[in-house]
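re: ur question from yesterday

yeah so i grabbed the chain u mentioned. its 195 aa long if i counted rite. heres the sequnce exactly as i have it in my notes:
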Amino acid sequence: MPKIIGRSLEEHRREVRSRVFDVLRGQLYERGFDAITLAGVAAEAGLGRTAMYNHFPDKESLLVAFVEDEATRYVERLTAAVGKADTPVEKLSTFVRLQLRVLAEYHLPPGTALASALAPAAYRRISAHADPITGQLREILAEGVPDEDPDVLIPMITAALGSRQVVDVPPERLDDAIEGAVRFVLRAVGMSENP
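ran it thru and got these structure tokens back, copy pasting raw so excuse formatting
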């Protein structure tokens, strides 16, 4: 019988997921998705292979659960940060900064690379987590530039913020790169930094 971590089954599940996701995060950045195995993740997380398979039946399920967990926490963080801003300019600036900080911190393969690594149904599940983020951006734009079509602006902004080249700079230049991107996006949508 496998050892239960924590005081309850629910606590055990959370702890196992946390350990596995920490290991997966590291392995994704070091090796990439294709080189990851469930057995390798289990071993590094200190779990038996059977225990790992009880939680995640295959590598794709593991990635989907990981991205869902990361996305849920990010949406909460984004909502709280944007909620503290008063003006549309502050809200959009906060949105851009956080998007780029997260891009700088995480190295999951973007859009099409991830799509090719997963079955279509799994990719759709992961993509659905972008909906609240897009919704947040849509609200900001509706308030800040109500005469512009958000269906035109949103893909342009997300394309600009999805470029790794913006954040793939030496650490001492990251803040300046992000602030340059904030100014660019504000100008692109017609919002003034100085009300």
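noticed a couple things. The domain at 60-189 is CATH 1.10.357.10 (Tetracycline Repressor; domain 2). also The chain is about 75% helix and 0% strand.
anyway ttyl
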